[in-house]
Structure formats: C-alpha cells, structure tokens
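Fold this: Type-5 uracil-DNA glycosylase
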Amino acid sequence: MDPQGLARLDRRIAGCRACPRLVAWREEVARTKRAAFADWTYWGRPVPGFGPPDARLLVIGLAPAAHGGNRTGRMFTGDRSGDVLYQALYDVGLASQPTSTHADDGLELYGVRVTAPVHCAPPANKPTPAERDACRPWLVQELRLLRPTVRAAVVLGAFGWQAALPAFAEAGWTVPRPRPVFGHGAHVEMDAADGPPLGLYGCFHVSQRNTFTGKLTPEMLRDVLRTAATAAGLQPP
C-alpha cells in the first residue's frame, strides 16, 4: 500500500490536459454551468478516483458527468447515477451515508475505491476510442498502486469493461483468452504471476437510462456489490 503514491497520482490526474476535445468541453461546461448550479464554482478538471488507498474492492464507471463529477470534483457525486450507486454502497455496508452531494459532505467509503477509465466529462457521455486509450495509463498506475490490497472489481457497463480489461493486463493480471464478454453478473477470475488473483464482476451501468427503465434495479446492483465485496474479503452484512 502506498497512500502517498495514490495521492500524488490523484493530483497528477487532476492536472491532465492531454485530450483537447475533453479539455474544451469540461471547461466550457464549467463556465456556462446549469441554471440549477449557477452559484457553484465548478471543478472543471479531470476527476481522480475516490476511496481509501487500501481498498479491497474497486468500482469502475465510465467517465464523470458534466454537471456531476465535473462540478463537484468527486466521482459519481452530485448526479442521479451517483445517487443510485452510493445508496447501494450504503445499503450493503460499504459507505458511511446514502448520499453524495459534494466533496466535503463527509462521505466515507469502507474498503472501496471508485474510479473510471476516462477522468474528464465527455460530450454526450461518449469518449472517443482515442480519448479512452490516452487516459488508460492513469488507470494502469492506479491499479498498480492498489495491487497490494485490491481483490475484486465491479465494472459498470460495457464501455468500462472494454476499457478496463487491457488496463488490468498492463497492471499485471492475466486476462483470459478469448477476452471475457461483458454482461450483468459476468464473473471472471484473473490470475497474477506475482500476487493473488482478482475477481472481476460485470454490472449494468447506473445510468438513468438503465435505472429508470428497470434494466438495473437497486436489488440487482446490491447483489453484485455484495457478491464482489464478499469475494474481496469485506464481509458486508
């Protein structure tokens, strides 16, 4: 475990300007704002991961929301997707409170870190393949720093799944061949030559499109989180 290394990585991520389209979009959104948040000073930068440096469980999303993480500076904070995710984490005993409204709201995660393969808010929530690939080294470094403790990961959505698999491979785990296919409830065990294996779990994304239509219910999300947490040794109630 290297808490200082992870903190340094988070600071470096927050200063990244590698993708011109994403830089322009995140800063334009921060200037123009949404009417409901007119009195906010938007973060307007890449959003680093959130959670303890000795996390045993990793939750991987897609990218920050334009008026969520891009506003608050914390992953899945201040938007409807975050409302669903953090309520579920609280329900299974992995978060100190069921809400996530701003970076200083007192929320703590227990043994869980939340991150994404793309750290900037993308237009229409759709990063390009080139932007995804440009951001991958950040995820690889984060995974390497977490390797001493992390034992399971929940990936939200097919985009995150496709982006995370090569990052896990670069960080030292062996991704099975043929490459595992994403699906809700998918489970893959990835061995490591110089350490313990990691359990990878697929879950539909907590987007409004999925939660409003019932494609992903709170029960479905809690089941995946509880299964992965148990596999990681967190023993949620």
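Residues 97 and 228 are 20 Å apart (CA to CA). The beta strands are 57-60, 112-115, 152-156, 173-174, 187-192, 195-203.
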